[in-house]
Write a structure and sequence with these properties.
- 2 copies of one chain form a homodimer.
- Chain A is α+β, with helices and mostly antiparallel strands and 135 residues long.
- Chain A folds into 2 domains: 77 residues, Arc Repressor Mutant, subunit A (Orthogonal Bundle); 49 residues, Dna Ligase, domain 1, CATH 3.30.1490.190.
- Chain A contains 6 helices and 5 strands.
- The first copy, chain A, has a 3-stranded mixed sheet with strand order 4-3-5. Chain A has a two-stranded antiparallel ribbon with strand order 1-2.
- In chain A, helix 2 crosses helix 3 and helix 3 crosses helix 4.
- Chain A is flat.
- The termini of chain A are far apart.
- Strand 5 of chain A pairs antiparallel with strand 5 of chain B.
- Chain A binds a DNA duplex (30 and 30 nucleotides) through helix 2 and helix 4.
Chain lengths: 135, 135
DNA sequence: AAAACATTGAGACCAAATATCAATAAAACA
DNA sequence: TGTTTTATTGATATTTGGTCTCAATGTTTT
């Protein structure tokens, strides 16, 4: 997947800051990150970048369907995995794991009921196997 | 369901403030509300109550399994429906609707994979039938 | 190379939620 | 019922995540 091409063909301009963020998210694929995570890493390479710009860029990447997001623990988490999966957050170590799922029938029945579903997130919490075993 | 009894048997004290919040959530069942919504209504009856207390009480009610919560649009939403369902938020009118679902098989397969799931939320966004029709 | 237009950076700003802690109230029990 | 124990509340300050504004800058088109 060429994110730069996707960005351009979505009608957005390719700026150095956007390239740095794309490099960051590629280095974190698959994975989950917050605006703060992007900022602190990209800021080392591009010291003038601000949080506001990071937020702008992440929103742009969502509009280009390069990223997806969900809210958890008071923050917005981003991911490049736009496919059908659940996000599991471990309440012990805080790590987020993708759990693959088949497309849930709820989306189909919601559509049948007249709901036009444009975004869906399945979020689980609990204790991951690693933390359960180390107790 | 007697929320007061549940609260007491969970080891929490029954205070006037907690009673007012319980009255509020009962008047909003089924439904979805934020801390701010609880505050502005309860504050009319119990003018000394503060947001901090409302947050405390809502957390207590979650610990007693009277409420469940999820995060959406930068806020935490609470609901008394603790059963298996999805929450659909309409991006036009902002209303949140419960969509009943059968317990998703992901929880079973997550358990099989060693994940101990203590909380799950299925969140959908899009356009509701009402808003779709009025366009 | 210049014009047209989108994007960025800086900092003020806003809203949601948490932390602190003395005063108060509920429940247990003498 | 009065007293003790212990949880809870209210007031305020603070933290955190995120948005707004707008002049300066950078990208793309011609």
């Amino acid at each position: 997947m060429d994110y730069v091409q996707t960005l351009r063909s979505s009608g957005f301009k390719v700026t150095p800051q956007r390239l740095r963020v794309i490099e960051y998210i590629m280095s974190r694929t698959p994975g989950h990150f917050r605006a703060e995570d992007v900022y602190s890493e990209v800021h080392r390479i591009e010291p003038t970048i601000t949080m506001a710009t990071v937020y702008n860029i992440l929103r742009t990447l969502q509009k280009s369907s390069i990223l997806k997001s969900f809210e958890l623990k008071g923050a917005t988490w981003f991911e490049t995995n736009t496919g059908s999966h659940a996000n599991f957050m471990c309440d012990v170590c805080g790590e987020i794991t993708d759990l693959e799922i088949e497309q849930h029938s709820i989306i189909k029945s919601a559509s049948d009921a007249g709901y036009n579903v444009t975004d869906s997130n399945y979020i689980l919490r609990g204790v991951c196997p690693k933390c359960r075993d180390s107790q």
